[in-house]
Specification:
With 265 residues, the chain is mainly α. It contains 11 helices and 5 strands. InterPro entries: Mito/Outer_Membr_Metalloprot (IPR051156), Peptidase_M48 (IPR001915).
Length: 265
């Protein structure tokens, strides 16, 4: 049984390995859009029914306008790079929710929510575009589907460990679990930081393609740093530190400009 599970894991990894466009990162994704998107869209609709939309018409329109421009840039990229069928699967939607949280998110398939609480950090239209580009990039790179795939692999691996070490001492089993990541979220946390950094880079490219000032992305995280507050060490966080993000965005900005010019033609 252990060999069967191991063979299944290897087969899944070989078959489902693909490359994230632009960054070139190898990813594991065997969860299809057909399995994910209907649920994603339904959950988004349910969220909107249960939460209060902002009554600020000007800001709401700004969010929708920025989202439309950035998603149009993403759509243009996909259709020019042999991804038309994938582009057709997205149902872009952008809403501003009345909530003090410093947050924004995008579900698989292009469903975006901004919270009014993050608008002071965004500060201006370019700042909104920086945050929007980041969130849209999560959907573009299929980070949600990739995390689902990774979670399933972990479940299969846990089963293999349980079978393979069934008669082992507790300490031996614990050692294998720690090595594999079972019972500890540190492996998944690191994985999340990979996604966040990739979304920062992709989002920078997309916001510039849409005609926004990429330098503002750095300023957004500088403003986030000024807010302060307690935060866990970076290795225990699902997101890179503000300092790390500022450094990444600053160093990647010249490359993002080149890529944006290349893909805008």
């Amino acid at each position: 049984m252990k060999k069967i599970i191991s063979l299944t894991l290897v087969t899944l990894m070989l078959v489902a390995c693909s490359t994230v466009p632009i960054t070139g990162r190898k990813r594991l994704n065997f969860v299809s859009d057909a399995d994910v998107l209907p649920s994603s869209f339904a959950q988004y609709d349910a969220f909107l029914k249960e939460n209060k939309l902002s009554t600020d018409k000007a800001k709401t329109q700004e969010i929708k306008a920025v989202g439309a421009r950035i998603s149009a840039a993403v759509d243009k990229f996909m259709r020019k790079n042999g991804m038309s069928a994938e582009a057709d699967s997205y149902q872009w939607e952008f809403n501003l929710v009345q909530d003090d949280q410093l947050n924004a998110w995008c579900m698989p398939g292009g469903k975006v929510v901004f919270y009014t609480g993050i608008l002071p950090v965004a500060k201006n239209t370019d700042g909104i575009a920086a945050i929007m580009g980041h969130e849209v990039a999560h959907a573009f790179a299929k980070h949600g589907q990739e995390r689902m795939s990774s979670s399933q692999i972990q479940q299969y691996g846990a089963a293999a460990i349980e079978i393979g070490t069934g008669d082992a001492e507790a300490k031996t089993k614990e050692m294998w679990n720690i090595a594999y990541g079972v019972g500890s979220q540190l492996g998944m946390l690191k994985y999340s930081r990979t996604h966040e950094t990739e979304a920062d880079k992709l989002g920078l490219v997309f916001m510039i393609m849409a005609g926004y000032n990429g330098a503002e992305a750095v300023k957004v995280w500088e403003r986030m740093s000024e807010i302060g507050g307690s935060a866990p060490p970076e290795f225990l966080s699902t997101h890179p530190s503000n300092t790390t993000r500022i450094g990444t965005l600053t160093s990647y900005l010249p490359e993002a400009k080149k890529l944006a010019a290349k893909y805008s033609n």
